[in-house]
Amino acid sequence: MTMFEAILLTVATAATPLLIAALGELVVERSGVLNLGVEGMMVMGAVTGFAVAQYTGSAWLGMFAAILAGAAFSLLFGFLTLTLITNQVATGLALTLLGLGASAMIGESFVGLPGVRMDSLYIRGLTDIPYVGRVLFGQDPIFYISILLTIGVAWFLFRTRAGLTLRAVGDNHTSAHALGVPVVRIRYLAVIFGGACAGLAGAQLSLVYVPQWVENMTSGRGWIALALVVFASWRPWRILAGAYLFGAVTIGQLHAQALGIGVPSQLMSSLPYLATIIVLVLISRNKRLTLMNTPTSLGKPFVPDR
Amino acid sequence: MMRIEIVKRPQHSALFSALSPFIALFLTLIAGAILFSILGKNPISALYSYFVEPLTEVWSIHELLVKAAPLILIAVGLSVCFLSNNWNIGAEGQFIAGGIAGSILPVVFPDFQGWYVLPIMLLLGMAGGMAYATIPAFLKVRFNTNEILTSLMLVYVAQLFLDWLVRGPWRNPQGYNFPETVQFSDSAILPAIWPDSGRAHWGFALAIIAAVVVWFMLSRTLNGFEIKVLGRSSRAGRFAGFSAGRLTFFAFLVSGALAGLAGIAEVSGAVGQLRTSISPGYGFTAIIVAFLGRLNPLGIIAAGLVLALSYLGGEAAQISLGISEKSARIFQGIILFFVLASDSLIYYRIRIVSRLSDTALKGA
């Protein structure tokens, strides 16, 4: 394997959790709901995935459990914001704080244990093709899921009637409601989907990226995923591009640290966070464009009149 | 089949406005009892060691005040932000920035001694927090950038910067390679209020003063009125001639200054030096404090004491019951959920409708 291939592989591994979590949040925001709990759902997915894989010995079961955990955890947010109509920003923060706390407690006995790694794909012949074999046919299963998910979300949102309805709910919930669209039910489904994606993204961290449990192991990736949705102007393919850009920044700074270019490692580690800020500034600078792309009902409370 | 139905109240309920924090605390206790039962502990004795035991000894009441001081200071500032619809969630970063800026004097110029050292440190701490909070405020006003994400990203940057500082240029040369700065000299230590009985420092007094001042500003001045109007409806605020951009700066500067003050007060009063980590997440817990205090600075004093108690309770429960002290963070998260849920009783009436009566209604 050449150096170039190795770098490409690690970039994909770093980008995948961002991509999956951001795609989930994209669907949630397209339905008009702002869930700032991505970090919390992701870390719950990470700890659940690790725990179940640890007890059953199967990374796959861990992954499915993480998806369920993320979805179940997101229901808490859904019930508060959609049924009790609480403030979405505050409730999302609450979800993140609770998730970080709960996962720290659940995972306390797992710290330092070797984890179960999800095997990468290996297809004799194809994977051995020089240069592109490993990158195309030798990655972990969650990588392929993330690509399929991008295609699926893009197709669903812009090529299906259900996707159109979901976007309509996000753009004007009052009109959608007047047309008889079940606004709250659609939003519940979107929130659960977002939770499932965040859970899967978390599982990627604890089963593929670094197969072990570390407290707060998401270290802001849920928030970067939220920023990616804004960066991508709420479009799935741009999320893919953004996630790989961030993956490249993350891996690039790690390699630079390894080469010892004389810049302190902590300052290099802060690069992905600074890059997020810079990218957000660049994208939001054009106020008209932002307004045009943002789902109009995003974050606004919906009280159905009866 | 049962269904929950929400009906908007014609007017806010004053009753639930006053009751909601208590309902939330009550529900949290019940949830805690259930949690402890699941963990196989006697819920009554667990809740006792969590919420009563820390209050039975003088030294631990001092610890309560030590932990409440930063929580109240930060949350008071956050209340100004949240009321004006500025979502500053990076107080943890501003806390660290304040701790660093305030430590310049005792770390870089340790020979500088005298009564004036401490006031300068506190002012520098406030300035550091303010400067750090200006970044998301400026980006929001000038470039329309989402302040939630920028302020949060800056938390990670501040944590990494502190880590570098304490392991690198500011490390104590005589410190056996521990990642710590020098111990502050006596003139750089925020003194204890009652040194004979415990270590509660004057940071708590500063917190009370800040809460009263901000309470006065919010409830008795035009500035406070402006904050509330623009927070509820930016359109109405614009018609009244209030500037949203100016207010965003104001809110971030106030909360940055208070978070910075909390940072240097913690470093100088409770720790006595800079370390790689100076906060067990005070900046985030303060968000819970602000909401539990219903964004009212006087309520925040009480809420800060409650959340400080949860930290101590976690430690006490770990010692006496063997429950991880991390359970405190679950408690804190649950409190915020219940606060938000019971707050919706203020604006909405909640009815549980059975499908049967629903169809009966339609038949009529």
From TrEMBL, chain B:
Q: Which UniProt keywords apply?
A: Cell membrane, Membrane, Sugar transport, Transmembrane, Transmembrane helix, Transport
- For this protein, the parts annotated as crossing the membrane are 12-39, 59-82, 89-109, 115-135, 147-166, 200-218, 239-264, 284-309, 330-350
Its Gene Ontology cellular component terms are:
plasma membrane
In the bilayer, the protein is annotated as: Multi-pass membrane protein
From the Swiss-Prot or TrEMBL record, state where the protein is found: Cell membrane
This protein's superkingdom? Bacteria
One Pfam entry name: BPD_transp_2
Q: What is this protein called?
A: Simple sugar transport system permease protein
Q: What is the lineage of its organism?
A: Bacteria, Pseudomonadati, Pseudomonadota, Alphaproteobacteria, Hyphomicrobiales
